Amino acid sequence: MKQGLAIVGGITFLVGLVWVGQGLGYIKGSFMTGDMKWFWIGLVLVVVGLGVGLIAFAAARRGQSRV
Predict the structure, then answer these.
(1) What is the distance between the alpha carbons of residues 40 and 45, in angstroms, rounded to a whole number?
(2) Distances (CA, A) of 34 to 12, 24, 37
(3) Over 80: is that where the pLDDT of 67 sits?
(4) The pTM is what?
(5) Which one-letter DSSP state was computed for residue 20?
(6) 57-63: which pairs have CB atoms within 8 A and are 24 or more residues apart?
């Protein structure tokens, strides 16, 4: 469960970074390129991905202290 949560958080973070790059026009070749809407959506995904990753990290640390 904790590893799955960390993987979901990491994928969400990376997709968010790609969308931020596309929204800002740094990553070309998509209908999202240069559209600031995708920057904001990507930024939200980056924050959500970090949050999920931190939750997974905290859960893993709690689990280790009980052993």
Answers:
(1) 9
(2) 21, 5, 9
(3) no
(4) 0.84
(5) H
(6) 57/6, 59/1, 59/2, 59/5, 60/2, 60/6, 63/2
